[in-house]
Amino acid sequence: MKLHLKDNEKECKAIYEKLAPKMMSLCLRYMGDREDAKDVLQDGFVTLFSKIDSYSGEGSFEGWARRIFVNTALMALRKNDALKMSDSLESAAHLQGGEMSQMQSISYRELLAMIAELPSGYRTIFNMYVVEGYSHKEIAAALGISEATSRSQLMRARTMLQDKIRERSEEH
Question: What's the whole-model pTM score?
Answer without folding.
Answer: 0.62
